[in-house]
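The material for today's practical consists of a large collection of protein records. An example says more than a description, so a record of this kind follows:
***
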Amino acid sequence: MERCTKAVIYKNNLEYNLNQIRKYVKKEVKLCVAVKADGYGHNAVITAQIAEKVGAAFVAVATVEEGIELRDGGIKCGILLLSLCTPSEMPALFEYKITPLVFGEDYIKLVAETAKSEGYYDYKVHLAVDTGMGRIGCYPEEAGDQAVLIEKSGLKLGGMCTHFAVSDSLSSENIDFTKEQFESFKTAVECVKEKGIEPGICSCGASAALLNDEDMQFDMVRPGIITYGYYPDEITKEYLEKTGRHFDIKPVLALETKVVAIRHFPAGKSVSYGRTWVADHDTDIAVLPIGYADGLLRRFSPGLEVTINGKNYPVRGRICMDQCMVEIGKDNPDVKVWDRVVVFGPKESGALNTAEDLAKLGNTISYEVLTALSKRVRREVKN
């Protein structure tokens, strides 16, 4: 038994994108592919398997549980944990060979003590540096002393990283801020070297920075959204082409469902909660078994159109938790019960929308559209 609402993963597109990234960055630069949030909704294990295939040194996760899932799925490459974890989660770091980010005296000591209690010495950690994101990390001027603490506590400094706040923006103010962050990170690295400690693998460039500034590729890059076929905000394909750089990627995931009922609506009949849409003429409404509990966000309507047999039709009324309604026109011979419906996806899926189109409707970003897909939307892999 299988529910008809599903996310189809076009595996060949995923591999194509990762190969494009591998070709784009400098040969000596390592890849750390972000597979957190179930591979941005695409299935983390499948994404990590292909990342390993193209030679990724690391994949990145946000929780210890995500790292465990990858090891259980047979992933052998390094796993970098981008968020902090609780004391109860720490033993699993070492059991499953997950590399944590650390900063701050108390947290470094806690990780070191847990490592020793689990029988691990010189365990490699990466030092997080806050250069302007305001999230986790030591300040650049603290990096040298924190590196000393890491080494003295019985851990091993395996790398350093920071995260840019506005590298996907082309405003002059934000370009300057990103450059300031980059210089601050380089200062942090030098502070560590001045203490006689090798900083290890240094990384600062995620999708936007790795595309827009070769210098910011450093020792390793951390591609996220571009892995899954979408450009980071203002760093678009058109912008890259204008600046003499070619980088082509393909959307990977298609969100699909089916028509489960067709209702005849006379003029004056309303649809869904709040009666926000009322038919002004006789028409037909197709009912789809997909709603905001699946990740089809309520704010996409009005405005959202879905593709049925090569044509877009508008969603009418509010998107419900489990269903939504689409106007198909009166006695439409091109739409029948059980016909396939594509909400968004790559061209191969027959979709006329992408996740970026939905993001614009919802005043959000493609990242949210993709990661919003819930567990009850089954994932199906297609070559």
